[in-house]
């Protein structure tokens, strides 16, 4: 974790920024409060001044990703207009939020475990997927999207494409703007030249 | 690993079938020869009768996935015809091989580490991705695929969609035939109704 500059004064937000990098590098289960204290360059008791412990840090970190994602569904373009246009907005914004909150969304997508917080995060992720699948179903019903791919399967493949970004994108690549455009083009119109 | 029936006589293939499940459940690094011996229900020396050790088992297991994938590129439909049709064949067959060799491809996609075998597997995976990206570039050059998505980015999103199958597909879901069709439809023509 040598690349993270240590600091002496922390807010919850700046502590989270360090925490999420350690969780992503070592895994949540593999991270101790000792690891977090070392990475942040502050004592464990200073961390306990901000949060109750490791699980609260996880809840705050994945909560930030979830707030970003659920916030999309509240945007005007996601709640009125033709279903296909609302879905297109949600797909583009999901890719944008993933890139803007990359370490937080990466952590959210890697959550697997059995603590209450991990179960809560998995359930909220499923809620988001279901909300998007529902929008996709509406667009199919309106005749705006093809009916020959089962909506649940289409949603899984769509999120597979979007979520894969965390596996290969590196912030020093640049091309942040290009990615949401490419996702929308492939998802809605495919690779084929028209 | 209680669901794997133990047996007293093993071939390399049946030993691999057990091994790949243990590697996928515990991670390659987290698996000891002791774990493999326990899962297979045979002694470590019986395993050493077949292979030199854990790293050879990994090489054989990911080799099986890689042979399946590279085999696609040798198929007649992948080597002659219009680039777009060759690419469509490769995309469909990649999804089919992934489903047919699910635990082996899952292991291949999770390889991250630093042993020689892991480095070799990562390099072979990159080779495969480059071969597909090259085919995609040919199809763009032939005017068969859209030119407004950078080919390397398109390839990443395409494999993101296909490779995500290992994250959500469960063999008891059924619908094996449906998935390669859905992948080809989304990848080439997108979700939009025409």
From TrEMBL, chains A, B:
Residues 32-51 bind DNA. This is TetR family transcriptional regulator. The keyword Secreted does not apply. PROSITE patterns: HTH_TETR_2. Coiled coil: none annotated. It holds the Pfam family TetR_N. GO terms for molecular function: DNA-binding transcription factor activity; transcription cis-regulatory region binding. SUPFAM superfamilies: Homeodomain-like, Tetracyclin repressor-like, C-terminal domain. InterPro entries: Homeodomain-like_sf, HTH-type_TetR-like_transc_reg, HTH_TetR, KstR2_TetR_C, Tet_transcr_reg_TetR-rel_C_sf. Residues 9-69 form the HTH tetR-type domain. Keywords: DNA-binding, Transcription, Transcription regulation. The keyword Membrane does not apply.
């Amino acid at each position: 974790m040598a690349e993270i500059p240590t600091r002496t004064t922390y807010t919850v937000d700046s502590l989270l920024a360090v925490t999420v990098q350690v969780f992503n590098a070592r895994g949540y289960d593999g991270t101790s409060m000792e690891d977090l204290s070392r990475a942040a360059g502050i004592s464990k008791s200073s961390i306990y001044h901000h949060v109750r412990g490791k699980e609260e840090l996880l809840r705050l970190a994945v909560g930030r990703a979830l707030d970003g994602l659920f916030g999309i569904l509240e945007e005007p373009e996601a709640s009125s207009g033709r279903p296909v246009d609302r879905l297109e907005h949600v797909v583009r914004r999901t890719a944008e939020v993933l890139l803007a909150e990359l370490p937080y969304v990466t952590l959210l997508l890697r959550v697997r475990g059995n603590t209450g917080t991990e179960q809560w995060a998995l359930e909220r992720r499923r809620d988001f997927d279901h909300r998007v699948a529902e929008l996709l179903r509406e667009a199919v019903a309106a005749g705006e999207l093809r009916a020959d791919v089962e909506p649940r399967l289409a949603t899984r493949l769509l999120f597979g494409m979007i979520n894969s970004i965390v596996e290969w994108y590196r912030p020093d690549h640049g091309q942040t703007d290009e990615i949401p455009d490419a996702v929308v083009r492939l998802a809605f119109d495919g690779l084929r030249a028209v």
